Protein: Methyltranfer_dom domain-containing protein
Amino acid sequence: MPPDWVNDLRGASIDEFNRIPLGFVKDSWSPSFLEFLTELKGLSVEYDQHDGVVPKARKGISIKKCYEIENLTSFIDTVRPAQEWELLIDFGCGVGHLSQFVNETSGRSVLGIEGNFQYIQTAQNRQNDLFPSSSQVVQYMKHFITDDSANTIHREVKERFPNCHQISITGLHACADLSVSAIRCFLHSPWVQHLIIMPCCYHKMCPKTQSASSGSQFQNMPMSEQLASVLVDGKEDIICRAFLRLGCQQTAARWKDLTIEAHLRHGRIMFRRGLIDAVLRDGESVKVGKVHQVPDEPTVENMLEQFTLESETETDARWTDEHRMKIQSLLLKYPDGHKLAEYLECLQTCLQNVLHGTGK
Structure:
């Protein structure tokens, strides 16, 4: 990170710091930092604003999940107002939260499709307990959706909902390649009129080869011919796993309300994870342990107490003196590492909106 940028971020008030990802700039900041923020603003995608009303909590569903369900359902109604004998196919329905809410609020019939049998059982048990009268109009099917699922789904629809001829596909948190499969199923299903999908977790998309699990070549990315035409002559690695992961991180809307204490805590967490990642060797990874309170000052010992070393080649991997020396060296090099980590997070939040649009 350029030293001038660090100085600009260090001198910002908490209000200014929180507003940077929303487009705030100061004329006194360094020219290169202003250029970066101005270019980002030109690349940002403008989205429709919503009223921001906090949804009512529902049994067994978090406020965040309620918010997502209600907003997607509202958008579905905008795209396609509910009609008689209409069916919505819920791809990756999980435990049926969206499926039941759509039926409850619009009267649509719903076929929820889920590849995890335990989720199907939970959805059916939840339906029996909370929505017993919906057993005919909301049904669940165990099936792992692929690009070739269109015929299987069509057969199930005709058997379960023979009177439904107005059909749409939807999905909330259509993770990784599921969104791509949904698009391809839709294109091979002339009997479906609409596709309304909310993708997520782009970084979990399948790599082109098994050896590229942490690399940058994906089977289904990019799908856009125009984007693919740009990613040539060595630029293919731009769309890497880190790029797609960043597109999924928290938005500027959530960032803007963080307190000084929240920033400090988050900076400490991210700095600790960054330190550990920096000392790992090829084939090594860690299991992150929970801590009730993040220490104000990271030390070699409290770092290694939180992270358990794992190895592809050793069954009983242990931290070595080499690991400890590297951690100690980095702690001495970056005494304000937690602040630098949060400055970096601010810049990543600035990028998130642009990368999220690319991921879609």
Summary: The chain has 15 helices and seven strands. The domain at 63-198 is CATH 3.40.50.150 (Rossmann fold). Residues 272 and 298 are 7 Å apart (CA to CA). The first helix runs from residue 3 to 10.
